[in-house]
Each structure stands twice: as C-alpha cells, then as structure tokens.
Records
---
Amino acid sequence: MNISGFEKYTVDHLFLLVGENPLPNYVAAKTLLAEGGKPYLVYSEHTQKPMERLKDILELSDNELVPLDNNQSNAYEIKKRIREQIKIIQKSYPDKKQFGLNYTGGTKAMATHAYQALLFPDDVDLNTKLNPAPIFSYLDSSSLKMLMTNLKIPFL
C-alpha cells in the first residue's frame, strides 16, 4: 500500500527504529515500502514487546530483525549491526537497491548512528555509498506529516 505523493520516496529495504509506540513504524512501512519491499526492525531489549507486535502484524521473519540487545546507545554496535544487515541484503537482493531509514522510534543514539550507517555502509572505505542514495523519513506527531529527506531529491 502506497499513499499518493510518496511514490518517489518508496524503498525496497526500510530500516525502522523501534520505540515504545509501534504505530509510527507501521505507518512508515505501509507508506514507504515499494511493492515486494521489506522492513527491518532495529530494536533493543527495552523495545522487545513493540518489536514483536510489529513483527507479527508485518508478517516478518527473524531475518528482518536487527537486535541491538542492550546496546541502544552504543555507536559502534548500532553501526556495525546495521552495516552487517545491509551487506546481507545486498547479497540476497542484488536487484533491489533502494534503502531507507525511518528514524521516528528508537533512541537519539540509534537515530544518529543508523543514519551514519546508511550514509557510510562500509566502515573501512568511507567513500563507499549506497546507490541510489538512501531515503530518510520521520513521522512528526505534532504536525501529522511524514518528513522526507533524500540527498538527490529536494526536501519535501
């Protein structure tokens, strides 16, 4: 399901930072995933229950989970685990290259370091970039708007 006007922002692979409220991630998944796209839930021990609710309703397998354990503030672990998932995805789906991150949920550290992991998916060669560039989104509860950022598309 894609809402009109968001077509240019749809992605094949959408990382969702799981917070206490699973609703923003559900909305992001239903709005921003291209046909056949997959969401990936990035969660910590503290957000296990909301993750399980999302996993069930989005019908995900364990392959679409990125557990941080108790490392929701650990920059190294957050980037490492997301980068590992990106590599797995790239090998498994070589023709589906558009990545996205919805950073509405999770901790501030998770948002910051997940963003960096998508901008710089290789920790050895920082010149390596995702192509096409990733799309970043945030569901702003105060304005009820989905805010979008794509480095190649002007801001919405």
---
Amino acid sequence: MGTMKLRDRHAFVTGGAGSIGLATAQLLCEEGARITLSDLPGPALDAAGAALPDGRVRAVPLDVTNGTEWQRTIADAVSAFGPIDVLFSNAGNSGVIVPVVDYPDEVFDSVLAVHVRGAFLACKHGLPAMRDGASLVICSSVAGMRGDPGVSAYITAKHAQVGLMRSVSKEAAARGIRVNTVHPGPVDNEFQKNIEQRLSKVLEQDATAFFDKLIPLRRHARPAEIARAVLWLASDDSSFTTGTTLMVDGGMNV
C-alpha cells in the first residue's frame, strides 16, 4: 500500500501500454488515483488495463495525434472519473537511426506528430478538463537536453517538448496548474532495446554497454524509477515546481 498521495484523484496516462506508462499508472494507482490509461488499440493496451485493479482503471484507445479522438476520450474520462488531476503525456515512437541527409521525410513527420503534436493536443484538450492546482507532466528524454548523430527526429521532438512545456507552464500558472517535463536516460525496456539493437549496427559495438559507459551510475534506469519521478511531479510534494526539466538519467547529461 502506498502513502496515498493521490487519494481519489484522476490521472490520465498516454502511452500506457509501454513500460514507463504502465509502471507510472501502477504507482499512481497504488497512491490512490483512478486511472484513465490510453494507448493505440490492441492487445498491449488490453493487457496493460488488465494489470491494474478493477474499478480503478479504464483502458481506452487513443491516437494522440488526432484532436477529435482527444476530445472524445477526454470527455469520456471526465464523465467516468471526474476532472483530471494528473495528466502524463507519455506516448512516443523512436523513428530510425540514419544521418539527417538520409532521414526519411515521412518518418521525421511521424516522430514529431507523436511526440510534439501529441503533447500539444494533450495540453490543448487536457487543460480545460483539469482541476485547478493539477499537474501536467510531459515525458521528454535525456535526448531533449543533448545532441547525438543519427537520431535527428527524436532529438528534435524531445527538445520541442521542452519548449512546449515552458510556454504552457506560463499559461497554466494562473490556475495553479504545474507543467513540467521528466527526462529519462536509457531505460531497461523493450523501447530502448529496439533502439540499441539498431544502434549497435551503426556503432559497430554493443550499444547497451556503450550507453552504460556514458552514464555515471553505470546502468540503465528501471521503469519504476521513472515512475517515482513522475509521482513526485504529480503529487503535492512538488507544489512549487513548474516550468522545470527533471532529469532522471543517472547523470548522463552532466
């Protein structure tokens, strides 16, 4: 049993079928929240919803790039669980690993659509449904604070989320709504493993070991460690924190 920092609050999580989204939803639920868990429709979303307690979660399909779907899903969520107290914008895709001169236009567009347009629509449609004093957290990345070759779309998207957060934090402050980004470093999950498998070929060495050498703590994060950072931003523990970038990267960006 958690400390019930979010007792009877409503948390809306996008990208909920992935490891960070699900770990965060599980922790927020343990802390007393009711969860609207969203992701693209399919078995992964169904399994994620089934992993959370009955009666405290609703798993709903959502394409975060589609404004009409956002309107429908937000209205449905508020009808079920009331105004939103925590919105975790976490949906993401990785793109490909190639030099910018070879980067496919359509892949670049897709990465920006999910990360940037998705976070923009979360703010646009989520804020009117949020309670005063609520918390909006966008999942950026250590990639939002640095530059690396071969991942121009992902780097651009993660930097753009920081700009969006900083702008929206000023707009939402009048209602006491806090807006922040969380910046994971490499995480021990399938999303990162898929990236590292492709990157190993580019680097001609094991990318997992390569990243571990870059991280002062010498390991990847666990999804639960990212979830705890999101909980801090979601709860009253961070009541005077807004417009900030919370690094959870083992020191990688120092």
---
Amino acid sequence: MYRIVHKEVLTPVTKLFVIEAPEVARKAQAGQFVMVRVHEKGERIPLTIADYDRQAGTITLIAQEVGKTTHMLGSMAVGESLASFTGPLGRPTEIASYGTVALVGGGLGIAAIYPICRALREAGNEVIGIIGARNADLLFWEDKMRTVTDELIVCTDDGSYARKAVVTVPLKELLDAGRPIRRIWGIGPAIMMKFVSLTSQPYGVPTIVSLNSIMVDGTGMCGACRVSVGGRTQFACVDGPEFDGHQVDWDLLLTRQRIYVDLEKQAMEAYVAAVASQHA
C-alpha cells in the first residue's frame, strides 16, 4: 500500500500529498506521471509527478478537487494509503542545454513545470517562469518557483494578485522584445496550452505541451488517451505526455475531453449526496 506521509492544503481546492513509493521515486524524472486509485473499486486517474525524493522514497502529487475521485483523494488524511500507485509513466522531459527557456504554468500546471524548471536550470539553462491562475486564491508555490527560475512572472486573470493578465500576454511580450528564447513549455488546462502554442507559433520557437487527455490504464493498452499530433494518432501515456504544441489538433483534444462531462457530473452529485447522508 502507498501511505500518505504528508498533506498540505495549498488553495481552497488544491491539495498536496507526499506518498511513500520508493520504487517509483527511484526512477521518477521530470515530466512523468503516475496512475492512482484511491480505493480498490475506484477509477484510475493520472497525476503528474510534482516532485520526488529518492533518498526518502517519496513522490509528491498535487491534485485539484474537480470530480468525484479528486474529491475523495482530497478527503484522505496522513497515515491512510492509496489502493494503487503505478509509475513512473510516460516519457520524461528532454533536458538539455538549450540556452534561454520559458516555462508557462497555468493553475495546476504550476506543479508540473516545477521539476522541469529545476532540471533545466541544473542543466545550465536560463529559466524564465510564467505562472498564473484565475485569481489569487488558486495560486500556489510562488516561493518554490523562484528557487528554480532566474526570472518569474506571476499573473492572475482577475488582477487580485500580481499582474492582471493571462499567461500568454507576458509570453508574447518576451518574444516581441527579442529575448533569445530557444524553447517553451506550456502546461495547464488544454485551452491555455492551445493559446500558448498559438502565441509562440509565429515566432518559430519550439513549444512543448503536456497533454491531459482521458486515460484509463496509462500503459498504452486501452487507447483512450489517443490524440492527433501532426496528423498522426499518438497515445499520451506512452508517446507523451509531452508533444509539439504546434502540431496538436487542439479542437479534437478539447472535444474528446468533454465526452464524459455528463457522467462525471452525475458521479459527483451521487458522491456529494452519499457524503451528506453519512453526516445527516
């Protein structure tokens, strides 16, 4: 079993978990993910590895409570264990000495870019970070991000904290100013990654995104996470999760992400009702 050894509430809907998983921690690399089950009959959900400690044998995950399973995960306490914890999965980020790089994290994507920023900086790159959220309440890890970047730009959509802007605005400003950015990573909601890619495309800067398509097994067998990249069918779990953002069929990805919206809503409503009845 995979025991929770530490838990933090980062925002009203975002929680951090440090999980005992020594075998996963031994091989984890930036950009990879794990498949998690909260209980034996629960669904498997993919969560990006936000951090790892090989010596302690732990993996750090950050989850936002948006559906039934993430709400169940959020209700778990230190000392409890997850039913399964499979990983590390996916291809790790290609870390090299590129020069100046920019990493854009939107919402939960902040957790995903943190280990990538750290690895790129350790490889000798100048790392520019851009992080943003809808409002101040949803921002987290600003201080940690400053430790792995040479420059950090913080935005909120509503202007409740730092700069009022969506993350593509400072990215475009950097590109317009002629900063020698050699590669861009954009991780966050699919619509944000789409616009990061559209922003960078006219400048010809390679742009990497981490696709959060629907997954079932995470090992390439089910085909649920298929995406179209450069006109070819790829599987996010084994061919990715990182892909060339300029080649992704964003309209198809966004459409497929909405397939189970009604069922997800029904599951959440049933879960809320069940919890309410237990406390009645």
---
Amino acid sequence: MGKHDVPEDPQQGAPEWIVTFSDMISLLVTFFVMLMSFSTMEENEAAVIRGAFGQNTGGILESSGGNAAASPEHDRLVATHPLRGAERPHARPAEELADNIDEMGQAMTAEHVELDLTAVQDGLLIQFGDECGFAPGSDEPNEKLRRSLRELGEVLSHYSHLVVIEGHTDDHVAPTPNNPDETALSLSRAVASAKILMEGRDMSRDVVQISGLGSSRPLAPNDTAVGRAKNRRVDVRILALSKARAAALQAEFQARQAAEGR
C-alpha cells in the first residue's frame, strides 16, 4: 500500500478577502454619512469645518469680518448684458430731475446767459437772452453773445449737425454803405456770429450756413424800444444730417485738412 499525503484541514472562519471588502464598505458608508451631514448641518457648523480645512491645507476663505463690503442693493452688473450693455436704463426718472438751475445748487449769476432751446419741425432752435442783442445798426456781437457762441461752438464741434445762424433786425434800420438794408444788416450779424462760433475749432465750413431774415420774424412788436431791442438778435438752428451727407462732409473736411497740411 502506497504512502498518501494527509489532506490539510480547511481553515475556519471567513475568507481573507472579506476583510478588505468590509473595510471598503465601511469607508463608503462613512463617506455618504459625511455628505449627508454636510448637506443638513447649520451654517455655523459648516463655517467651523471650512475653517479647519483651510487652516490645515492653506486654503483661502472669504472674509467674514466686520470690514467686509456689503453687496449693493441694486447691482448694475447683474442688469448688464455682456454684448448689448445695460438691459434696464439707469437714468433718473424725469420726475426726480431738478426743475431749474437753483435746485441744482447753481444759482443764476450775472455771468449766466439765458437760452431758449425749442424743438421745431426741422431740428432745434436756440435763442439767446436779451443781453445778447445788438446795438441799433451794428453787426458787432457784444461780449456776452461772444462767450455764448464760443461755448456753443465747443459743443457743436463734436457732432455732425447742420448749423444755420439766422440774423434778425428791427424795422428801424438806417441804411449805411456796408449795410444798405435790413437783409444786408441781418446777414452781417449772422456772418460775424458764425466766425465766432467756428473760431479755433475743426468745424467744416460746409455744416455752418448763414441766413439773413431782416425784420420778417420779430419776437416782439417794433413799436417800442424794448421790443426793437429783442428783435436785434441772432438765432442758431441745429438740423440733423443724413448719414450719407454727414459721411460725405466728413470726407471733404478730412481731404481739406490734408491739403492744408493740418
């Protein structure tokens, strides 16, 4: 009878792989329990945990101190489209605007010149105050009118609008060699005002026109000295140009500047 190996006794208990599997299950259960606790914990508890992680790992946490800036009540960035810009207007409503210059904290002084800006069918009509009128028979603008025309020219030089300067007279014009009638005197007043308006500015001569209307459009009756003084004036009419006309004028103006070496 041959010699036979004695079989080994089977090991008692669970196999060895079950230990590793149990450890993995325990870790997963612990992980899910932590996730659930984080989702239901109070805000102050979450802050403590964030602080602990940040302290150990060098993380950067948002400031919660007393000097932290508060969020604005109306955030304009939220209302701004990245391409179209603001989706809601931010301008103040008309009812909240000041009605006059006194409410703006800038009371009228002797240096201010009163203007009457009126919307008309073909654009805007600017009429200056009585202090900007002309002396009888004169085409020389006074100092207040000069200052107003310079300030207006500074603004208009940035826009492609047609500017018409209209000269006016009363009906008591005495003929002179230079200005034999009302039309000639009103044209002289318009020319003198246009020169001041354009002086020292890159304004195309093609966008500034003059008109002499004589006494055909009085502001007041000519039967008193006060009324005649109101009528000795210049008005400025601002008209919009078509895009094609504005582009053509701009091209002509640039060509003239190039030819003049400016």
